[in-house]
Amino acid sequence: MKLKNSFYYLTVLWTTLCLITASGCQKAPIDSHVEGFWMLKSFTICESNETVICHRLYYSIGRMVTEISERQGTQGYDAYIGRTEYGNNGKELILRDFKVRGATTSDTGQDAPITGLLPYGICSQKETIFQILHCNGKTMTLKSDYAQLELEKF
Question: Bridge-partner residues for 149, per DSSP?
Answer without folding.
Answer: 43, 142
